[in-house]
Amino acid sequence: MITIVTLARYQKVINVLSKRQPDLSILAEAVYKPHNLSAMLRSCDAVGIGKIYAINPTGGVPTYNETSASAEKWVELEVLENVEQMLQIAKVQKMQILAAHLSDKALDYREVDYCLPTCIVMGNEKWGVAEATAELVDEHIIIPMMGMVQSLNVSVATAVLLFEVQRQRLAAGFYDSPRLNPEEFAKQSFKWLHPREAKRLDTLGLAYPPLDDEGNISSV
């Protein structure tokens, strides 16, 4: 059964995809609490991140299907085996990799230029970013704390960092026009507007048909 798209939904999807930031992401390193990972995904969606990465030493990422707002529908999550894989991805995409990590060389998170292609590594709830990972990234960043505790909850810290990223990119005009390439924009539009048909076509290994000006399938 082909979905008939309402004009309001079509406009919403186009508006959201027009603000996606393909050169911005996070890497969740062994974040093992489902509600934290879910909250991180929601923050990513809110600032225009369409894809994030995760490393989990137990071999997988916990389920997060019951999250309010179902952010997992809108943000792709790719599981990596180690941080070296992320370094390779970052090299291809010319990203700076920053780690939220307390160290002698850590910068106040507001001092960093997030208009550059960027991936931010967030460590797990108990230990933070692994020391081995911290040695591989370009810079360490911190959120200054004025209380007795040294850090925020990982999902809260992610939100704080990402909304500084959004502030800088808004000022630079990064959200004023689409930054996804036309092919990716069309592909993602189809997947969001016609998820069942997209799944069927993916299973068959077939290309997505074009959409008309209202988001409906113009030919099959």
Describe this structure in words.
The chain has 220 residues and is of the alpha/beta class. The protein contains seven helices and seven strands; from the N terminus they run H-E-H-E-E-H-E-E-E-H-E-H-H-H. A seven-stranded parallel beta sheet has the order 3-2-1-6-4-7-5, with helices on both faces. Helix 1 packs antiparallel against helix 6, helix 2 runs parallel beside helix 5 and helix 6 crosses helix 7. The longest helix has 18 residues. It is elongated. The two termini are 12 Å apart. The relative contact order is 0.19.
Topology summary:
Blueprint lengths: L6 H11 L6 E6 L4 H14 L3 E5 L20 E5 L2 H11 L2 E5 L6 E2 L9 E5 L8 H4 L4 E4 L11 H18 L10 H12 L1 H10 L16
Helix pairs in contact: 1-6, 2-5, 6-7
